[in-house]
Amino acid sequence: MNDKESTQKNLSEAQEQGRYIRRIRSFVKREGRLTKGQASALERSWPTMGLKHEDGLLDLGKVFGREADTIVEIGFGMGHSLVEMAAAAPEKNFIGIEVHRPGVGACLMEAEEQGVTNLRVFEHDAVEVLQDCIADEALAGVQVFFPDPWHKKRHHKRRLIQPEFVEQLRRKLRIGGVLHLATDWENYAEHMLEVMQNASKWQNLSATNDYIPRPEERPLTKFEKRGARLGHGVWDLKFSRVE
Ligand SMILES: C[S@@+](CC[C@H](N)C(=O)[O-])C[C@H]1O[C@@H](n2cnc3c(N)ncnc32)[C@H](O)[C@@H]1O
Known about the structure:
Layout: H1 3-16, H2 19-22, H3 36-49, E1 50-51, H4 60-64, E2 70-74, H5 80-88, E3 93-98, H6 101-114, E4 119-123, H7 126-133, E5 139-145, H8 163-172, E6 173-183, H9 186-198, E7 202-204, H10 222-229, E8 235-241
Parallel strand pairs: 1-4, 2-3, 2-5, 3-4, 5-6
Antiparallel strand pairs: 6-8, 7-8
The structure holds S-adenosylmethionine.
S-adenosylmethionine is lined by residues 26-27, 74-77, 97-100, 103, 125-127, 145-148, 160.
């Protein structure tokens, strides 16, 4: 059995045992319609930029054709900040993970427009992609910007940032690699800080031991500009893997 066949066998066995089916997910799959532009960008660019969960563990050197720092963005939405960051840092590799197909299409459209070549995308659950496709210590950075806040208390368990998930992220980062989180929902910011402060083997990069000022490399979105005018806050957190 080759590597690909053995990954597929492990995945189907896990699914049969209900390992994935029972897990609480951080998203609800919405079957939004693709615009024509998104559909044709998917058709054109998926062969060069798309990555599939079922292909198993990635060889990053082969995927990007070079050895370079690799940054993963989880839940990139329509991909605006991801494409902008990839365009601004051509010396780095970027991998985006998003479950919403129109978002993946929009991201590829924008990547085409900007001529970005250092970007690959998964249309799949990030928890499973990290588990099955990314080797331990492979990443220089992970970013999660404005994850779904799941406002209601009874839904808080669906929030992506949880102790088990950040431990999974820590193992995927190399020593010194950085996790960057941002949210505009104060209660989620407090939850993120609490989860990270209770997690071991991380160092908070905040001078005040809580949040950091918005880092320049995180693009300012229209939504965030509008929020700032209305006096809404945004909280950024950065932690590095120390062990
Ligand atoms: C509130 S949106 C924010 C999108 C984008 N980061 C932004 O700042 O505009 C959160 C996104 O995370 C995606 N998402 C949630 N859980 C995910 C998961 N487990 N794997 C991949 N994407 C996920 C959702 O589909 C959604 O597009």
